[in-house]
């Protein structure tokens, strides 16, 4: 539907054009025929009807012959007509002008209606296709763009407070009272907008948008509830895992320490020196086990709280790898280190990298069969340094690898007797914090290979194109 300003502008332009043509014809009326002038007037009337609508066309169809009679037909400046032929010409002009202007106006109106219907169909098709996690934002953006609004906001009102759910545009309202118009779409949610006044047809299409927004807001609330429920479920799962760890993995070493200490304190038994040493070794080993478990719990707490801040600097692997093996105590005796000379330094936090390697190497030693050795090597691959920890234990199936990198997840309680399922999770988290990547692979002929990739402090490309294999 055409707006009134457009019709007024078309009518004004038509009046100016008629006046200009009339002035031209008056200056040439001795040389121009009345029928020729009426033909040109007819073109102007058709144009006015097309742009200004039916009413403007009818007015111009009546005004044009009156103007021609007044200025171009003798006697001039009077409405009298002496020549019957001129009267016929004027009557034919009026009839043709009215018919043509009516048809042109109707055609223009139908074309405008068809264009509006096409735009509405396009908008509805976009609405029907709106989906995905940002569907609400997409629909509100479409609403703001389609109607050329300054800003749109979906506002939830709870206990006198207005909370913005989603906004669009350069100047969205923050409260329904600030909006030029608003529409409630539920008991507590309002769509508010700033911008120009809309036509009746535009309001009709806008209500289709409101219906779609109401559905998406409801889906948004359901998704929020589902996310909260999932967070509660994960928290409950984590709490259960921690309780299981405390009840099993912490109680076992404590029981062993208490048993050994109680035995040593018995005054009615004279223990041989060898047995006394065994009791003391048991206390020391179980204390180390407790220290590892508690350290892992503290490290995981720091990772989940985002409190890990690596101090990255060049780190020589020939220094940190032996230190990591030494940190696991007697278990390091079954580890073979293969460190090629002239390796560039890794860009890492030395303390965190040693912690990562100690966790992975200790894990590899624990799951290796008796007599099997763990191999630790390092190579340069493209712009990375890769550290390989290779064991020949039971390995981990590809389908389970993502699981074992999650905190407090173990494939089987029977596979581990000295941890709470945090070793690989902490190694993965600390490696990521240093900008690296941890990957689990199969060892040829059975077992697990853990690959740690770290950036080089010296970013020179590798000279050996075949690098990248342990």
Automatic annotation (TrEMBL):
Membrane topology, from the record: Multi-pass membrane protein
Record-linked SUPFAM superfamilies: ATPase domain of HSP90 chaperone/DNA topoisomerase II/histidine kinase, Homodimeric domain of signal transducing histidine kinase
Subcellular location per the Swiss-Prot or TrEMBL entry: Membrane
UniProt keywords, alphabetically: ATP-binding, Kinase, Membrane, Nucleotide-binding, Phosphoprotein, Transferase, Transmembrane, Transmembrane helix, Two-component regulatory system
Histidine kinase domain ranges (all copies): 245-458
Phylogenetic classification of the source organism: unclassified sequences, metagenomes, ecological metagenomes
Keyword Membrane: yes
GO annotations of cellular component type: plasma membrane
Protein name: Unannotated protein
Residues passing through the membrane, by range: 39-67, 87-108
Species, as recorded: freshwater metagenome
């Amino acid at each position: 539907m055409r707006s009134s300003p457009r019709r007024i502008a078309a009518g004004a332009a038509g009046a100016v054009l008629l006046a200009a043509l009339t002035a031209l014809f008056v200056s040439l009326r001795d040389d121009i025929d009345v029928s020729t002038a009426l033909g040109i007037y007819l073109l102007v009337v058709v144009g006015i009807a097309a742009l200004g609508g039916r009413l403007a066309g009818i007015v111009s169809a009546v005004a044009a012959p009156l103007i021609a009679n007044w200025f171009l037909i003798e006697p001039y400046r009077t409405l009298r007509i002496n020549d019957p032929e001129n009267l016929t010409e004027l009557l034919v002009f009026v009839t043709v002008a009215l018919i043509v202007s009516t048809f042109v106006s109707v055609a223009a109106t139908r074309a405008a209606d068809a264009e509006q219907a096409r735009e509405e169909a396009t908008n509805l098709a976009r609405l029907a296709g709106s989906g995905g996690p940002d569907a609400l934002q997409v629909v509100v953006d479409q609403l703001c763009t389609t109607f050329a609004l300054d800003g749109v906001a979906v506002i939830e009102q709870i206990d006198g407070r207005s909370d913005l759910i989603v906004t669009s545009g350069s100047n969205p309202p923050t409260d329904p009272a600030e909006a030029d118009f608003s529409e409630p779409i539920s008991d507590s949610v309002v769509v508010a907008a700033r911008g120009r006044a809309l036509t009746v047809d535009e309001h009709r299409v806008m209500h289709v948008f409101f219906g779609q927004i109401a559905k998406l807001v409801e889906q948004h609330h359901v998704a929020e509830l589902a996310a909260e429920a999932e967070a509660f479920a994960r928290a409950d799962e984590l709490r259960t895992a921690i309780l299981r760890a405390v009840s099993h993995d912490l109680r076992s070493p404590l029981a062993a320490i208490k048993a050994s200490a109680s035995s040593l304190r018995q005054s009615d038994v004279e223990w041989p020196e060898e047995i006394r040493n065994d009791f003391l070794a048991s206390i020391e080993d179980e204390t180390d086990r407790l220290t590892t478990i508690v350290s892992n719990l503290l490290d995981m707490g720091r990772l989940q709280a985002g409190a890990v801040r690596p101090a990255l600097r060049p780190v020589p692997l020939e220094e940190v790898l032996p230190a990591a093996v030494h940190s696991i105590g007697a278990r390091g005796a079954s580890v073979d280190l293969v460190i090629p000379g002239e390796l560039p330094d890794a860009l890492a936090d030395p303390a965190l990298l040693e912690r990562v390697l100690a966790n992975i190497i200790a894990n590899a030693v624990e799951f290796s069969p008796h007599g099997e050795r763990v191999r630790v090597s390092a190579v340069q691959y493209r712009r990375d340094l890769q550290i390989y920890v290779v064991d020949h234990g039971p390995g981990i199936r590809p389908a389970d690898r993502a699981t074992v990198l999650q905190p407090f997840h173990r494939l089987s309680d029977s596979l581990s007797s000295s941890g709470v399922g945090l070793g690989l999770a902490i190694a993965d988290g600390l490696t990521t914090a240093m900008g690296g990547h941890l990957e689990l692979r199969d060892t040829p002929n059975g077992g697990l290979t853990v690959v740690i990739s770290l950036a080089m402090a010296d970013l020179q490309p590798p000279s050996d194109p075949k690098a990248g294999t342990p």
